[in-house]
Amino acid sequence: MKVIDVFCCYYAAEGEFNGVPRHGAAVRLTAESDAGNIKYEYSVSFFRHDDASDFGISYDAVFTDTAYSARGRRSAKREKELLSYLREKIDSLSDANGGKVFWDQPLIEERRG
Fold it and tell me: Partners of 28 in the beta sheet?
């Protein structure tokens, strides 16, 4: 199984999960390929980010949505289309779980794989 971050960036965020205030969010679109199958997934993980050097990712506030799953392989065309929905999908996951991502406040430069 091979997992690749098609897109990854950390943003300022807000939310409270399990009684802990969170001020950062890791946003990802990942591709997972295995035995001729491909799956793309949107995910947002809210973490504490109490100061500028705090990037300790929490695993108790992770929300995901499968964007695509089928036989096949990675496709640049499909990834471009899925990236066009990234903010909408992440906002939906965040809103449904009581969080908010501040898109205009990245904490690191975005990475693409």
Answer: 8, 43
Residue 64: which of 106, 92, 38 has the closest Cα? 92
Instruction: Show the tokens assigned to 79.
Output: 């990834």
CB atoms within 10 A of CB 40: 23
Q: What amino acid occupies position 3?
A: V
User: Whole-prediction pTM value?
Assistant: 0.91
Tell me how many domains the chain contains: 1
45: buried, middle or exposed (CB in 10 Å: 19+, 13-18, 0-12)? buried
| Whether the Cβ atoms of residue 107 and residue 2 lie closer than 8 Å to each other | no
pLDDT in tens, 36-76: 999 999 999 999 987 777 777 778 899 999 999 999 999 99
Say whether 43 sits in a helix, a strand or coil: strand
